[in-house]
Design goal:
Elements lengths: L14 H18 L56 H11 L3 E5 L10 H13 L2 H8 L2 E5 L4 E6 L2 E6 H15 L5 E6 L4 H9 L13 H23 L2 E5 L2 E9 L11 H11 L5 H16 L23 H16 L12 E6 H10 L1
């Protein structure tokens, strides 16, 4: 063998035989290594037996793209804190002045009263038959994310994010409450009660009423509204807790139905609601009467935007503390949607619930990046 400092290679005289000897020695050591192993065993303790758990396969780890990171049953701390509305200081001052003159009081719900009207039974059955198990699963297990505005909100179900139309969902909810609690609704009492004539005249001044000179004199039209509601006041009070009372020579609105605890419709829409009860409800057919009344009432109670106004939906609108409309939507409206709403199958096609993101789909996008 020749070894020099400047050499990059070293050659052996009998290189092949040397390699063979080294290979044989390595094989002998490796093959004999198994013979030297020692295994320790222990018998089962008395009373211990073989269980099925020993043979069960462990659950596979959940992929990150399928992991649900929220719990729809968890509550937030802000639910127990009252949020004051600080959007518009001018509106706060006006409501403070109004609260000295107007108050809203509630009367408890009637219980145990059974309604056997076939028209009501048919309307309730129609709600159930139109319901969708798929959408019910979404609404009953949703997690509220936040409000976009009064009309739209973001909600999460499983690994999907939806843009929810709060106006449509709340309208469906209130219509179903009117029919489900038919004849057993609580009452929101107004003090002092407004005159129906004044409400009708206010409505005819608004664009929503659609009045035109060809319709006739406003005073005369408002009188027709008063006459019709006066003739129906016993039925409205008995079935829907919508109460009218003659005070002096004038018909007054003394009570509204309380459809949801801690929720009150925006009173700015009350005049138009009163007029639409007279013009849009079918008073000639029992089933259509109940159905159209429920729809008009649901439209009045629904959460919605109003251009040029800041609608609120708390019972403190006319007396009491002001509550932020976002708080009411998150902690009053959507919990009721989760608990009681039976959504129709059309909710996924009429953009009531619009999927805007899916976690598995987002992971696919990230994997391609």
């Amino acid at each position: 063998m020749c070894v020099l400092p400047t050499k990059h290679e070293v050659s052996f005289l009998h290189q092949d035989s040397i390699i063979e000897k080294i290979q044989q020695g390595m094989e002998e050591k490796l093959l004999n290594s198994n013979a030297s192993r020692t295994f320790y065993t222990q018998k089962l303790l008395p009373g211990a037996g073989v269980t099925l758990e020993m043979f069960e396969n462990k659950e596979k780890a959940l992929a990150a793209k399928d992991m649900v990171r929220t719990d729809s049953n968890m509550q937030k701390m802000d639910k127990f804190l009252t949020k004051k509305d600080t959007e518009d200081d001018a509106d706060m001052k006006n409501d403070k002045v109004a609260s000295e003159e107007h108050q809203v009081k509630t009367t408890g719900k009637q219980t145990g009263r059974q309604i056997s009207l076939s028209s009501v039974t048919e309307l309730r059955q129609a709600i159930l038959s139109e319901g969708s198990a798929e959408i019910t699963s979404i609404t009953s297990n949703l997690t509220f994310v936040g409000c976009v505005d009064r009309e739209l909100a973001l909600v999460q179900h499983s690994t999907r994010l939806y843009l929810a139309n709060t106006t449509r969902l709340s309208s469906l909810l209130f219509r179903q409450i009117v029919l489900q609690d038919f004849g057993n609704l609580s009452v929101l009492r107004l003090s002092p009660p407004p005159k129906v004539m004044d409400l009708a005249l206010l409505a005819l001044e608004q664009k929503e009423a659609g009045w035109s000179p060809g319709d006739g004199d406003k005073e005369e039209l408002a009188g027709h509204v008063v006459d019709l509601l006066q003739g129906k006041k016993e039925m409205l009070a008995d079935y829907f807790s919508l109460e009218f009372e003659m005070i002096g020579d004038c018909l007054h609105l003394t009570g509204l139905p309380l459809l949801l605890d801690d929720f009150c419709p925006w009173f700015g829409g009350l005049p138009v609601y009163i007029v639409r009860l007279a013009t849009e409800v079918d008073w000639d057919n029992e089933r259509l009467c109940f159905d159209t009344f429920a729809k008009e009432t649901a439209a009045f109670y629904s959460v919605k935007e109003k251009k040029g106004a800041q609608p609120r939906f708390d019972t403190g609108q006319h007396g009491g503390d002001m509550v932020d409309w976002k708080y009411t939507i998150e902690h009053v409206v959507y919990p009721a949607v989760k608990k009681t709403l039976v959504p129709p199958s059309a909710c996924l096609t009429d953009r009531t619930l619009l999927q805007v993101a899916s976690l598995p789909d987002l992971y696919k996008v990230f994997e391609r990046c």
